[in-house]
Specification:
Length: 62
């Protein structure tokens, strides 16, 4: 994930910052507790495509 792009992208739900999860190849929004997948280098920033994270999962990224 391009670091400059990561500074520009925000969660489409909360407009908060996103954290790159390199291991699982996804973007994490702690504020909305959603994980957005990245396919072929393109972030899929649609709420319908995201998966909800548990409180424990979110705490790992804080």
């Amino acid at each position: 994930m391009n670091k400059k792009l990561l500074t520009i992208l925000v969660c489409p739900v909360t407009k908060g910052p996103l954290i790159y999860d390199k291991k699982n190849h996804r973007l994490i929004s702690c504020s909305s507790r959603l994980a957005y997948f990245i396919k072929d280098g393109i972030p899929l920033l649609q709420e319908e495509e995201a998966i909800e994270l548990s409180s424990e999962e979110v705490e790992k990224y804080r």
